[in-house]
Design goal:
Layout: E1 2-7, E2 10-16, E3 24-25, H1 27-31, E4 37-46, E5 52-66, E6 69-77, E7 85-87, H2 89-93, E8 98-101, E9 106-111, E10 114-119, H3 135-140, H4 165-173, H5 212-227, E11 231-233, E12 242-246, E13 252-256, H6 259-263, H7 275-279, E14 287-292, E15 312-313, E16 318-321, H8 331-342, E17 351-354, E18 357-362, H9 365-381, E19 392-395, E20 397-400, E21 403-406, E22 409-412, H10 414-421, H11 429-440, H12 449-458, H13 469-483, E23 498-503, E24 507-514, E25 517-525, H14 528-531, H15 535-549, H16 551-554
Parallel strand pairs: 2-7, 3-6
Antiparallel strand pairs: 1-2, 1-5, 3-7, 4-5, 5-6, 8-9, 9-10, 11-16, 12-13, 14-18, 14-19, 15-16, 17-18, 20-21, 21-22, 23-24, 24-25
Helix pairs in contact: 4-9, 10-13, 11-12, 12-13
């Protein structure tokens, strides 16, 4: 909702946004008047275009008015485009109870024992283009003149390749795979079960309390789940509480807190694929397609006798899932088990599956047409549905499991590298651990990662965190190293491998290679005892570490 108001004597445009947890003020408003702005804890904010901005300034007790009504609120300073103020959930909750009519654009609430009504400004002015020569004339006539720059915004997809007519024909042939399911999934050999530990009594918890706005969201979500037959009314002795989690697009996801039920569930040890092992299968592939299943968990039925265990409570009722819910123990194992069973004839030949991410890879266009057709036929046969907008077909390069894959090899995802490069200075162990966890995901792409990051990992020890100039220098060095990560080749197990090692006073390292191209890096810093070894001993330690780390590559292969 857009509402006009004033900050001091300046007219402003405010956006009331219940999807924002905090309220923000544009720094342009502050620059025109004397306001006190102070430093605050840095906070990352996701803006409308999907980018993240960081704000570390706050304007305390800002006085402003909306349609003649006075308000006061602490505001974070953020360079938002298009608005002077953004009034978020923190401002709205100060005014509850309130009535919001989104259709009429009206907000009603009590303030200082008086009823206040705010009405969205709907007046629209005529907009027309004017020539540069007429700008002064328009301004003199009292018109508001805006200067706009137009830029081409590229598609969010990394690849702008078009799908070939042959592949489009295959997709059209299996168009029902990309439709929304019209009924519940059929019972299968792999339905989700909830085996409980012996002696477990029905688990029942009181529902959590929710805000007025969340109750409305919960009711809408429940209505949608009932309409799609994903849940049904329950009289089960089991009951778990629910909570709402905001998704990237600003909408809400209903999550059931199955923590107590999960702790009483016997765990399924079905193996989950190792990402590095999956990527090692791609040697020789030049064309790729990626299929993303639509709400994958909801395409698996609950076993009839276990439906009652999924029961949950809301503020208005008691329900249970007919399909496998999110957040329940063993769900990943069940899903991977089904995917492996469905694609078993083609796994590692031209199909890789990691939960609901299905990759089809081929050496050329002709074989890819055949491979894609076979994969889609299996999805159709097993009543599994994909989301077309999240799929990519016939690509020479695409993102898969956080990596960019192509015929040239495997590279880091630029989006994740950008997150690392923009990571703010850690203020505590938790934030430092988050940064190292993110960089560690790509450690095999970076030469000497272990040695570079060692001073930072030392700060994870108990009572060791102390950010100083040396830590800042290492922090920047690690960011630089991540930005220059290598493109790794895909292993060809028919050809010999080479290992090159290196040792220094502080660490050891090695690179696994084929035909002079790196497949992976490892590095390790040395402790006080191993630092005292001779140069030959350190070199041998590096070789021993490399052979132990890469034994799954070297066993049965030639080593040169």
């Amino acid at each position: 909702m857009r509402i006009k108001g004033k900050v001091g004597h300046k007219c402003i445009c405010a956006l009331i946004d219940s999807g924002r947890t905090h309220s923000f003020i544009n720094p342009d408003v502050l620059s025109s008047q004397p306001f006190v702005v102070s430093k605050n804890t840095p906070m990352a904010v996701m803006v409308a275009n999907g980018n993240k901005m960081v704000t570390d300034l706050e304007c305390k007790s800002l006085n402003f008015s909306l349609q003649g009504h006075e308000f006061q609120k602490d505001m974070r300073v953020l360079d938002v485009k298009g608005y002077d103020l953004i009034l978020g959930l923190d401002w709205l909750t100060d005014l509850v109870p309130m009535l919001i009519d989104w259709g009429k654009g009206c907000i009603q609430f009590q303030k200082d024992n008086r009823e206040v009504q705010l009405q969205v400004n709907e007046e629209t002015a005529e907009i027309h283009l004017c020539q540069e020569l007429n700008v002064q004339q328009e301004e003199a006539a009292g018109s508001e003149v805006l200067v706009a720059h137009l830029f081409l915004i590229p598609s969010s997809r990394q690849n702008q390749e078009t799908t070939s007519p042959a592949l489009e024909a295959i997709l059209k042939q299996y168009s029902e795979v990309f439709q929304e399911p019209s009924s519940l999934p059929p019972p299968r050999v792999v339905d989700h079960t909830i085996p409980l530990l012996p002696g477990t009594q029905p688990i029942s918890q009181r529902p959590y309390r929710y805000s007025y706005f969340q109750k409305l969201e919960i009711e809408k979500i429940i209505e949608d789940l009932l309409r799609n037959q994903l849940i049904q009314p329950s009289s089960s002795p089991f009951a778990s509480p629910i909570l709402l989690v905001k998704k990237k697009d600003g909408s809400w996801r209903l999550c059931v807190d199955y923590k107590k039920l999960n702790s009483a569930t016997i765990k399924d040890k079905f193996p989950i694929p190792i990402i590095e092992d999956l990527l090692d299968e791609l040697h020789g592939a030049t064309i790729f397609s990626k299929i993303d299943l639509r709400s994958g968990y909801h395409q698996i039925r609950m076993r009839l006798e276990d439906i009652c265990k999924t029961a949950f409570r809301t503020h208005e009722g008691h329900y249970e899932f007919t399909v496998m819910p999110f957040g329940i123990s063993n769900a990943p194992a069940t899903f991977q088990k089904l995917m492996n069973q469905v694609f078993k004839p083609y796994l590692r030949k031209f199909v890789l599956v990691f939960f609901d991410d299905i990759l089809i890879f081929s050496p050329d266009e002709a074989s890819h047409q055949e491979h894609l057709s076979k994969a889609l036929a299996l999805l159709k046969q097993h009543n599994l549905f994909a989301k077309r907008t999240k799929c990519e077909f016939g690509m020479s390069q695409l993102e898969y499991l956080g990596h960019i894959i192509s015929s040239q090899g495997i590279a880091t995802d630029p989006a994740k590298i950008e997150v690392m490069a923009n990571w703010p200075r850690p203020r505590n162990v938790k934030e430092l651990r988050g940064f190292l966890g993110l960089t560690g995901y790509y450690r095999r792409f970076v030469k000497d990662y272990g040695s570079i990051s060692k001073p930072l990992t030392n700060q994870l020890k108990k009572n060791a965190f102390q950010w100083n100039d040396q830590a800042e220098k290492v922090f920047v060095s690690l960011k630089t190293a991540m930005s220059g990560a290598s493109v790794l080749a895909m292993p060809d197990f028919k050809k010999p491998f080479q290992i090159e090692t290196d040792a220094s006073d502080k660490g050891i390292g090695a690179v696994l290679m084929q035909e002079k191209r790196p497949l992976a890096y490892i590095s390790k810093s040395l402790g006080p005892k191993t630092q005292g070894l001779s140069t030959y001993e350190k070199e041998f330690l590096a070789l021993l570490t490399a052979v132990q780390k890469w034994r799954h590559y070297l066993m049965g292969a030639n080593l040169s």
